[in-house]
Automatic annotation (TrEMBL):
GO terms for molecular function: metal ion binding; protein farnesyltransferase activity. This is Prenyltransferase alpha-alpha toroid domain-containing protein. Belongs to the protein prenyltransferase subunit beta family. InterPro entries: PGGT1B-like (IPR045089), Prenyltrans (IPR001330), Terpenoid_cyclase/PrenylTrfase (IPR008930). It comes from the Eukaryota. GO terms for cellular component: protein farnesyltransferase complex. Keywords: Metal-binding, Prenyltransferase, Repeat, Transferase, Zinc. SUPFAM superfamilies: Terpenoid cyclases/Protein prenyltransferases. Residues 19-49 are annotated as: Disordered. It comes from Meristemomyces frigidus.
Length: 503
C-alpha cells in the first residue's frame, strides 16, 4: 500500500512540474465562457444587488443646500457620512445578508445581549443604581419581542423589586430611594411581562399616586418633583393595568381644589403641552420633543378611544406635520428634536406615535347589526410615515458586527439595553399594523376601570408587506402593544388578573 501511494505522489509531482501554470479563472459575471461549467456553479445562488431606494439617490441629496455651518449641521453631516456606506450596503461589515440584500436581524445575539444585565453586573453599573427598574424592563420586554420565554425571570424579579417598593406606595429606583413615576412604570411593565404583578401593593400605590396628582390636572414625577407629561402617562398606565379606583384617595391634596378623580382636567392639561410647532413638550411652554408626543398620545388613548380623545385635546394635523419632520433623510430613522441627530431609540418614541395617530384620524365604521351579533369595526390602514426607511436604518446602521449582539443609537455608538429594546419596538411598529377596535367597551360598568387601552388589536405584516420592507421571516419581531409597549399577552394577563378591582 505504501509503495502504491509513493508512486502516485511521484506521478502527480511530475505532472504538476511539467504542466504548472498560473491562469485567471473566469468570474461569475463573465458573459462568455468556454468549456464545461465549474461543477455546481449552475446551482449557486446569485448575490442580490438591490438598487438603493429613492431617498438614498443622488437626486434626493441634490435637493438640500445648506451652506451655513453650525455645530449641529456638522454633526449631522458626520453622522450621514457614517451611515451612507451601511445604508447602501457598500460596507456590510461582514453581517449575514437576507434574500433582499439587507443584514438579517441578529435575533439570537440580541437576546443573549439582553440576558446579561439580568445577572450579576460589574462595578461600573453602580452609576445606574437609580435606574435598575429600567434595566429589568428593557431586558425582559426586549427578549419577549424576540419570542424568548421570559417567565423564567419571574421569581428572581419579584425577589429583586420587593425591596424597591415603599410602604407608602410606588417603587424607587434602588434600595431606600423615594418612589418615582418612571421607576414605578418600568417596574410594573417588567413585572407584567414576566407575570409577577401580584407583588404590587395596589392600595398603597393608589394612595401614593394621589400624592402626585396636581390641581391643574397633571402629575408630578414624584412628591415635590417636576410636573410633566411623563408623569401623566406613567400614572395612568399604573392606574389602568392594576385597575385602581379612578376616584382620588380621601387624603389627596388635589381634592382641596375640587378635583374628585385622577382623570379630572388631565386631557385639558395635555392640551397645554402642545406648542406653536404642533409638537408636544414636557410641560406648558417647554421645548417640543418626540418622546413627549408618544407619552401624550398614549395617555389620551388610555383615557378613551383615540378617535375621540386625541382630536378633542390636540391639533392632530399640526402634530402630524411636526412628527413627519423628525424622520431623517437620508438615514431613515427618527430624531427626537428639530435639527438633531438620528437616534435608534426614537424608532419607538416617534415611530410608536403613528399607530395612535392613524387610529385618531380613522373614524370607526360599524357594520349594521345582523342576527343579533355585535357590530365589528372596519378600518382602512393609513400610512403616515416611511416604514421601509426605518427598517433599513435599524438593520444596517444599528447592529454591530462580531460575536456580540445589542443595538445602538447610531454607527458611532455602543449598543445598550435601552436602544436594543426600543429598536425592537420600532421594528415591530414598522413591520406590523395596529388598530383600535371601537366595538370594545370604553369603561367597565362595575369597577369603573378604563378599558379603551385594552381594545387595541395587532395584525402581523403580510408576506407581501414584509417583502416590501425587504425583510425575511427570520427577521420579523413580535407584536408590541402600542400603548403599554409590552407584549399583548402580558397586557391581557394583567387585565384578567385585576378584573374585579378590589384591594
Amino acid at each position: 500500500m505504501a509503495t502504491t501511494d509513493t508512486a502516485a505522489e511521484d506521478a502527480l509531482d511530475e505532472l504538476l512540474r511539467d504542466k504548472a501554470r498560473i491562469a485567471e479563472l473566469p468570474s461569475d459575471d463573465d458573459e462568455e465562457e468556454s468549456g464545461p461549467p465549474f461543477p455546481g456553479k449552475q446551482c449557486r445562488a446569485k448575490r442580490v444587488k438591490p438598487e438603493p431606494p429613492a431617498w438614498l439617490s443622488e437626486a434626493t441629496f441634490s435637493l438640500f443646500h445648506d451652506d451655513y455651518k453650525t455645530i449641529s449641521s456638522e454633526a449631522i453631516a458626520k453622522t450621514t457620512a457614517e451611515c451612507l456606506p451601511l445604508l447602501t450596503i457598500r460596507d456590510a461589515r461582514g453581517l449575514s445578508l437576507n434574500s433582499h440584500g439587507l443584514p438579517h436581524l441578529r435575533t439570537g445575539q440580541h437576546a443573549d445581549f439582553l440576558r446579561q444585565p439580568l445577572g450579576n453586573l460589574p462595578a461600573g453599573f453602580a452609576v445606574m443604581d437609580a435606574s435598575r427598574p429600567w434595566l429589568f424592563y428593557w431586558c425582559t420586554a426586549g427578549q419577549s419581542f424576540l419570542g424568548e420565554d421570559v417567565s423564567i425571570y419571574r421569581e428572581d424579579l419579584i425577589h429583586t423589586v420587593r425591596p424597591l417598593q415603599n410602604k407608602t406606595g410606588g417603587f424607587g429606583g434602588g434600595h431606600g430611594q423615594l418612589s418615582h413615576c418612571a421607576c414605578t412604570y418600568a417596574t410594573l411593565l417588567a413585572l407584567a411581562t414576566v407575570g409577577g404583578l401580584e407583588v404590587v401593593d395596589r392600595e398603597a400605590m393608589w394612595h401614593w399616586l394621589g400624592t402626585v396628582k396636581q390641581v391643574d390636572g397633571g402629575f408630578r414625577m414624584a412628591i415635590d418633583a417636576e410636573e410633566d407629561i411623563r408623569g401623566a402617562y406613567c400614572a395612568m398606565t399604573a392606574l389602568t393595568l392594576l385597575n385602581l379606583p379612578l376616584e382620588l384617595p380621601p387624603d389627596c391634596p388635589a381634592r382641596e381644589a375640587g378635583l374628585t378623580h385622577f382623570t379630572d382636567k388631565l386631557g385639558e392639561w395635555i392640551s397645554t403641552c402642545q406648542t406653536y410647532e404642533g409638537g408636544i413638550s414636557s410641560a406648558p411652554n417647554h421645548e417640543v420633543h418626540g418622546a413627549y408626543a408618544f407619552c401624550a398620545l398614549a395617555c389620551l388613548c388610555i383615557l378613551g378611544p383615540p378617535h375621540d380623545t386625541i382630536p378633542k385635546h390636540l391639533d392632530v394635523e399640526a402634530l402630524i406635520h411636526c412628527l413627519t419632520t423628525l424622520q431623517t433623510t437620508p438615514e431613515g430613522g427618527f430624531a427626537g428634536r428639530t435639527n438633531k441627530l438620528v437616534d435608534a431609540c426614537y424608532s419607538h418614541w416617534v415611530g410608536g406615535c403613528w399607530a395612535l395617530l392613524e387610529a385618531a384620524i380613522t373614524p370607526p365604521h360599524h357594520n349594521k347589526q345582523q342576527n343579533g351579533k355585535t357590530p365589528t369595526t372596519v378600518s382602512k390602514p393609513i400610512s403616515l410615515w416611511n416604514r421601509e426607511a426605518l427598517v433599513r436604518y435599524l438593520l444596517t446602521c444599528c447592529q454591530q458586527s462580531g460575536p456580540k449582539g445589542g443595538m445602538r443609537d447610531k454607527p458611532s455608538a455602543r449598543p445598550d439595553g435601552y436602544h436594543t429594546c426600543y429598536s425592537l419596538s420600532g421594528l415591530s411598529a414598522a413591520m406590523h399594523h395596529y388598530a383600535y377596535d371601537a366595538a370594545g367597551l370604553d369603561k367597565d360598568a362595575v369597577s369603573g376601570r378604563l378599558l379603551a387601552a385594552f381594545n387595541w388589536k395587532g395584525r402581523r405584516g403580510t408576506e407581501s408587506e414584509l417583502k416590501s420592507l425587504k425583510v425575511d421571516e427570520v427577521d420579523v419581531v413580535g407584536l408590541v402593544h402600542p400603548v403599554f409597549v409590552i407584549g399583548f399577552e402580558a397586557v391581557e394577563r394583567a387585565r384578567l388578573q385585576f378584573e374585579k378591582g378590589e384591594f
